[in-house]
Design a protein that fits this description.
The protein is mainly beta. It is built from two helices and 26 strands. Helix content is about 5%, strand content about 40%.
Length: about 350
């Protein structure tokens, strides 16, 4: 099997029923999250032996589409439903939905008919209830689809490639988008006053420039964490009024990052004594820079998570930015296994 071109993806059903993993072309690996939690609780209560961990094994589903651009679970569906953005052999891109029958372990037709989208589309953003639907992000357009046969609303943007997004409110009407230039924009879905629960338009506004983001996390009260792999990560504050530079962004703290290092050299002291320095070519795009590194190691605590149950021996790895980490070897050692999912509301663990 060939690994998927877009990189391995992991996505969770918003109703916490399934975990989907896109690892290889034409194959979707699915794990039943509800069964996973039930069996883990039973093992914890010693109602079943640890060897029963096999009940939580994932199952595979075949996909006809081989060039998948993006894939996400939809909100508020009777069955877990996937929305896929894919490209066909004619280089046209489409939206398609597939529901998962958990009992029969197979795909069934989804609630939407297949729809053609912008050929530059590269990302889909599921919109929560009561609005529902998805936002399709393309290189020159932002579009909202509600599952009908026609696109509902669309706005044009300057040509770019959007890397990531963050939802601002629970209603799913406000989003922050970050692109390859480090530009942040806010997208607002306006609601029809005559028909609550219906989208009446899309509004976008320029916020400012940050490091090129790999992930965006809205922390609340206007605070946003910008995680970057091409430059320094940042903690920013969104201002209500634009400053003198026409930006709504105020950088509060910077977290240095020397990666990716594409070249480096060691500079010896001219006097022949003293400490040498390492000069690196760090970063990429607009965040490329020269960094001077001296000998020394610093440790900074990032997370301190206190478990409620302290009576048992536990080991865990905390997943950050929505990732899930699985320590399989702990079960064989007699430890309880924990999976952490970090989301906008309190951390869920089992």
């Amino acid at each position: 099997m060939r690994e998927i071109d877009i990189g391995q993806r992991l996505f969770v059903d918003p109703d916490d029923r399934l975990i989907g993993m896109l690892l290889y072309d034409g194959q979707l690996k699915v794990r039943n999250l509800y069964k996973l939690m039930v069996v883990t609780v039973l093992i914890f209560l010693q109602a079943i032996p640890i060897e029963a961990n096999g009940l939580r094994d994932p199952f595979n589903l075949s996909l006809d589409e081989t060039k998948i651009i993006d894939i996400k679970f939809l909100y508020n569906c009777l069955r877990p439903t996937l929305c896929m953005l894919f490209e066909d052999t004619k280089r046209q891109r489409f939206l398609r939905t597939l529901s998962i029958d958990v009992r029969e372990l197979e795909f069934i037709p989804g609630p939407w008919t297949q729809q053609a989208v912008d050929c530059g589309a590269n990302m889909i953003i599921p919109v929560p209830s009561p609005l529902g639907g998805v936002i399709v992000v393309a290189s020159t357009t932002l579009s909202y689809y509600a599952g009908t046969t026609e696109m509902v609303y669309c706005v044009e943007i300057q040509f770019t490639q959007t890397f990531c997004y963050a939802r601002i409110n629970r209603e799913g009407t406000r989003y922050i988008l970050g692109d390859c230039r480090g530009v942040l924009i806010v997208l607002v879905l306006t609601i029809d006053a005559q028909q609550p629960g219906k989208v009446s338009g899309i509004i976008i506004d320029y916020l400012g420039i940050t490091s090129v983001p790999e992930t965006i996390n809205y922390l609340g009260d206007g605070f946003v964490f910008i995680g970057s792999v091409f430059g320094d990560s940042q903690l920013i504050k969104l201002l209500d009024v634009k400053n003198n530079q026409g930006s709504n962004v105020e950088v509060l703290e910077v977290y240095p990052n020397i990666g990716p290092v594409v070249d480096m050299c060691l500079v010896e002291p001219s006097s022949g004594s003293g400490q040498g320095q390492l000069v690196t070519c760090s970063g990429a795009f607009k965040d490329g820079s020269l960094r001077i590194i001296r000998n020394g190691i610093g440790l900074h605590e990032q997370v301190n998570l206190i478990l409620l149950n302290k009576c048992c021996s536990t080991e865990f790895v905390l997943g950050v930015s929505g990732c899930i980490w699985d320590q399989r070897n702990l079960v064989n050692k007699g430890f309880f296994k924990f999976i952490f999912r970090q989301i906008s509301h309190p951390i869920i663990y089992w």
